[in-house]
Amino acid sequence: MERPSYLLDSNILCEPSRLHPNVHVQARLLAHRHAVCTAALQGRTPPCIDGQLAAIAIVNRLTLVTRNTNDFADVGGLTVENWCEG
């Protein structure tokens, strides 16, 4: 199995369950289904979750996939993609 190369934010993971899912996200999820690492949250979401996601992605050399790219704009050393943009 190939090494995971993406860390997906929950807003990307939930996309297929939306009433009108973004076709670009669905295509990327399907294309990368074997190279995806996810961060699952249990219970209460900590206020610093964006920082935790960024740290996980940086340490593991993953590309963080999120709809909210502006939330990570000031994080150095982080590669971010928005699959909703096509």
Fold-level CATH name = Rossmann fold
Individual helix count: 3
* Beta-strand percent range: 5-15%
Overall geometry comes to globular
Counting structural domains, the number is 1
Radius of gyration, in angstroms, nearest whole number:
13 Å
Helix/strand order: EHHEHEE
What would the average pLDDT be, to the nearest integer? 79
Indicate the percent of residues in helices: 25-40%
- Alpha-carbon distance between the termini? 26 Å
- Main beta sheet, described? 4 strands, parallel
Structural class: alpha/beta
CATH architecture: 3-Layer(aba) Sandwich
Uncertain ranges: 40-47
Describe, in plain words, how this protein is organized in 3D.
There is one protein chain. This protein has 86 residues and is an alpha/beta fold. The protein has three helices and four strands. It has a four-stranded parallel beta sheet with strand order 2-1-3-4. The radius of gyration is 13 Å and the shape is globular.
Quick overview of this protein structure:
28% of the residues lie in helices and 14% in strands.
